[in-house]
Design a protein that fits this description.
This protein has 139 residues and is an alpha/beta fold. The chain contains 3 helices and 6 strands, in the order αββββαβαβ. It is globular, with a radius of gyration of 21 Å.
Length: 139
């Protein structure tokens, strides 16, 4: 029995390989916390962390340099420029989404937002590192 020449292989295999490789280039954002059945402005609950001076001056997703003294945050789940009320216990702060984050593995562990140093410090002591929060989208 004669084997097919190399060029005689089914084209479908090459197409399938191309499709699989094309999907490997850019990481996609993590899945949003479940909001099924909730109104669009219902609070989402999860963990918040903070990032500070080590990233100061680096460009954010909105193109501006990061300033840890501003009331900003990073989120995958809201459009850039969205204003959010972040509440921890009896304390709250209003922040603007200026960047994307937290890192995908952290989102899978329940982290829903990264706050600037200034925003986090209004909710909890910085040494705490993480705080349980409710995030509500503002108009």
């Amino acid at each position: 029995m004669k084997s097919l020449p190399r060029s005689g292989r089914p084209a479908g295999l090459a197409v399938l390989l191309g499709i699989l490789l094309a999907g490997c280039g850019t990481p996609s954002p993590p899945a949003a916390p479940s909001r099924q059945g909730l109104p669009a402005r219902a609070p989402v609950t999860g963990w918040a962390s903070w990032y500070g001076h080590e990233l100061a001056g680096r460009p954010m997703a909105n193109g501006r340099p990061f300033d840890p003294t501003k009331l900003t945050c990073a989120s995958w789940f809201y459009p850039l420029g969205t204003r959010l009320r972040v509440t921890a216990g009896t304390r709250s702060v209003v922040v603007t989404v200026t960047d994307r984050g937290p890192a995908t593995p952290l989102v899978r562990q329940g982290r829903i937002i990264d706050l600037s140093r200034a925003a986090f410090s209004r909710l909890a002591p910085l040494r705490q590192g993480l705080v349980r929060v409710h995030v509500t989208r503002l108009r």
